[in-house]
Structures are given as structure tokens and as C-alpha cells.
Amino acid sequence: MFNKKMVSICIICLLFLGACNNGEKVNTVIKNPNNETNNNQTEVKEEKGNEQVNEEKHENDPGIETSSESESVSKINSLEQMKEQKSGSLVQDATPQFEVENSAIEPLNSNQIKAMIEELEKLTNETADATEIYNKIVQLLRSPNYKEIINRAENFEPRFDKPFMPSVSEEDNNDVQSNRGKAIILLDAKSSMLLSQDGQLTLETIKNSITRFAKIIGQNNEVSLIVYGHKNNNSETDHVQACNAVEEMYPMGAFDEEQFKQSLRTIEGNGESPLSQALKKAEEISGEEDEEVSIYVISNGAETCNGDPVKEIKTFMSKNVDRSVHIIGLEVDEDAGDMLKELSILGKGSYYSVKNEEELKNIIGEKWLKNYIDLALAHTKAPGPWEILDEYNRFDEDLNQIREVIKTEKSRYDQAVQILSLEKFVDQSIVDQVSELIIEEYRNKLDIISEFRTNKLEEIDQEAKDIRDQVEEWKEQMQQLENLAFAQPNSEHQVF
After folding, report:
1. Scanning 151, 201, 351, 369, which has the fewest C-beta atoms within 10 Å of its C-beta?
2. Residues 187, 227: Cα–Cα separation, whole Å
């Protein structure tokens, strides 16, 4: 019994040591260690004067403001009520950072402890009602920061990466808002020498295939059409002219189907194949921007104008890592095929050789277009479990600040209850009732925050689901577009 009493005395001394300054003493309760058979106590108190003296002390104590009237404290049942909670008169200067970082270090400072003792003593001299005492503790010590930190958490928005979903609807073809890269189509017009016979290649077949291909890649790329080899070479003068015959028929820009078709209608010729000049032209219009640029070459043969296509491709590729050159050889011989294949390797692209209309459609549709769509699909991903979890964790950073403030607030309340108990201002049964009211408020606030978290995580899940649904719908449209783009055109689609 003696040891227990000595521990109580030590606790009181430690609790109030910081509250004593300038020779001024606070009340203490000393138990009689020589009488273990009864609870008689001797109170040693220094004369404190009347209530007016106490009020003067508060006026002379900077930073401490107390209310002379106790107010009724309503039960908090919602997040909005937490936000509207008034500041405790003893903790008005507590910042969010302090309450988050100092919850278990220093709930109350020495001045606040001293003011708390005086307020509780004054109140308990008038009443021993647990609810009124609880109300007073809350009035003095409740957090001033709920509104700020709750608003921050309410304004949280998930930062999912927006998936790359270029428009696939026909009505959007002429309204490209932004372009992801550039696609330059090089057409060897010497292929017009090919005659329509038994399903063999014709220029009209090539024009139709190019138009369908450009229509799709033009959904999210600027498109350019460069034609070469479209001037006759019946004389030496014509030969020079034919080797310089490189023309951008469709200027680099958003894809417009009617204008693109119009640019193809006038193409005729049976000239040379100045492939290197065409590649040089493509390099010039590709620009210096850090963006994806792809060249698609449809050639009827190798270079015939003594140019150096290898040099031109190397120059083009040196500008940016996101560049490529893809080539289709139209009925080319082995030597020409080897040269074109070498160029495609230098251009980090693909090479295919075709001999008839069906092969051309298959290569453009199943190789060029499929590779393009596969690339688009690879960049089009909905938020996965890990991305969603990252957003949960990011939100919890804001939410945990609210929890820490709740804990700090309760630590202050608990310290007030400890003062109430150690000073013996009221019976222990009253102290227990006050403590139960504090615990009830604490649990109630945690329940409110838990419900808030559940609702916010549902919002994060819903946004992820909305994006996932959009991606799935887009993928389905892309697959349909791939299936339909190179279907056999009927006569009404033969526009050239």
C-alpha cells in the first residue's frame, strides 16, 4: 500500500512540475502514508484568493484563453459536423502539422496544464455532473484543424494515367484534335506501268489500299503522301526531270479522306525511281520534334537515279529513336528485293514482297495495319490492381493525418481526465463516466473516418472501372475496324 501511494505522489509531481513558475505553486494532494486502514487525506493547499484573482492570472498568462461559460457539446455524427467543430479555447494555435507529428509527445504544455487544472477545479466546485465536465474538457481541448485536413482528403482525386485511345469513329475522321505522331507514305508511281490482268496489281488497287491504310493511321497521326517516279523519261532531258520528280501530293496534316483521294486521282506516269530523293523529302518534312515518325514505302523497284537511299535513311533515323521505315516491294526482282530489305532493316522496320492484289491487301491489312493497331493496344491499358492500390495508399496519406489529429485530441482529453483523477476533484465513478464519454466520441470519430475511407475507395474503384470499360469498348471498335478496313471493296467504293 505504501509503495502504491508513493507512486501516486511521484506521478502528481511529474505532471505538474512544469506548471510551477516564479515561486507560484499548484494544488497537490498528499496521502497519509502512516494510515493504511482508512482513506483519510490531508489536503495541503496554498491560499489562492477568490475567483477574481484566478481571472487575473489568465489575463496575465499570454496564449491561454478560457471561456467563463460552459457550452453544450453535441454528438458528432458526420464528417460535416467534424469540419464545423469549434476550436478548443486552450489549443487555438495548434497547427495541423503539430497535431499530426506530436500526438504522443506533448499533448499539453505547462501553461495549458495549469489552465486546465484551474478550469476543472472551478467547474467541479460547482458541479459533479459527468456530462458537464466532459463538455468543459471538449470546449477547452478539441482540435481546431478538422476542417482543413478533411477538406484536403475530400478533394483527393486519383491520378490514373489516361489511356491512349485514338478516335475510331468515321464522323471524327475530319476533326483530329491532337496527333500522336507522323506517318509519311511514299508511293512509287512507276507502279502504274502494272496492268490489270488476272488479279494482278494495278495502280487503282494500290490507291485503294493506301487510302484505307491512311484512313486508319490518320486517326491519331498527321499524314503525308509523297509520290515519286511520276514523270516520263522519253529523252535525256526527261530522264533528269524524272529523277527529280518527287512531290508531296498530300501535305503533312490531319487526315481528310476526300482530299486524300483527290491527291491520288491525278497520279500517272512511268518514269524513274528516285527513291533516295523521296526519302530525303520525307526526312525534310518529318521535322525535328521529339515525336514518332514512320515512313511507309510502296516501291516498284530499286533506286534508278544514282541516289544513295542508305545515306538518306541513316540521316532520317539519326533524328530520333522513335522512327521507323517499312517497305513493300511490288513485283520486284531478287536484287531489288534485297536492297529494299536492307533499307527496312536500317529503318528498324519491316519488308514484304507482294505479287498480286490479294497479297498487297493482306500485307497492308495484316502486317502494317495489324502492327500499328497492336502498338496502339499496347499503349492502351486500364488501371490494374497495382495502380489502384497506389491510389489507395496515396489517399491514405491524407486520411492518416485525420486519424493522427483524432488521436492527439484524445491524448489531450486523457490528460485532462488524469488531472481530474489525481487531483481528486470528483469521485472516481464520475471520472470513469467522463472517460467513457471521451472514448465514445473517439470511437465515433474513427467510425466516421472509416466510412469516409470506404466511400472514397469506392470512388477510386469506380473511376478505374469507367476507364476499363472505355478501354474495352475502344479495343472492340479497333478490332472491328481492323476486320472491316481491308474487306473486299464493292463497286461503289472504287473512287479512282
Report:
1. 151
2. 5
Q: Show Cβ contacts of residue 222 under 8 Å, excluding neighbours closer than 6 positions.
A: 179, 181, 182, 183, 252, 253, 254, 255
Q: Report pLDDT for 346.
A: 92
CA distances (Å), origin 297, targets 191, 459, 485, 490 = 12, 48, 20, 26
Model-wide pTM > 0.85: no
Q: Which of 82, 88, 145, 143 is nearest to 116 (CA)?
A: 88
Beta-carbon contacts of 132 under 8 Å, excluding residues fewer than 6 positions away, are 70, 123
Q: What is the pLDDT of residues 45-79, one digit of tens each?
A: 333 333 443 444 444 444 455 544 556 677 899 99
Question: How do residues 334-378 score in pLDDT, each as one tens digit?
Answer: 888 888 999 999 999 889 888 877 777 777 766 676 666 665 555
Enclosing H/E stretch for 299: strand 292-299
Contact 368, 344 (CB under 8 A): no
Helix crossing, 385-422 with 428-485: angle to 10°? Answer: 170
Q: Are 110 and 86 in contact (CB under 8 A)?
A: no
| Partners of 228 in beta bridges | 188, 246
Name every residue whose Cβ is closer than 8 Å to that of residue 100 and which is 6 or more positions away in sequence: 401, 404, 405, 408
Q: Which residue has the cell 495541423?
A: 96
Q: Which residue has the cell 497495382?
A: 386
Question: Residue 396 to residues 82, 86, 152, 402, 463: CA-CA distances in angstroms?
Answer: 18, 25, 12, 10, 17
Question: What's the rounded Cα separation, in Å, for the pair 79 and 450?
Answer: 11
- Greatest pairwise CA separation for the chain in angstroms: 133
- In contact, 167 and 219? CB cutoff 8 Å: yes
Query: Alpha carbon of 357 to those of 217, 362, 397: distances in Å?
Result: 21, 9, 61
Contacts 24+ apart (CB under 8 A), 100-104: 100/401, 100/404, 100/405, 100/408, 101/404, 102/408, 103/404, 103/405, 103/407, 103/408, 103/411, 104/407, 104/411
Residue of 378, 459, 323 whose CA lies nearest to 165? 378
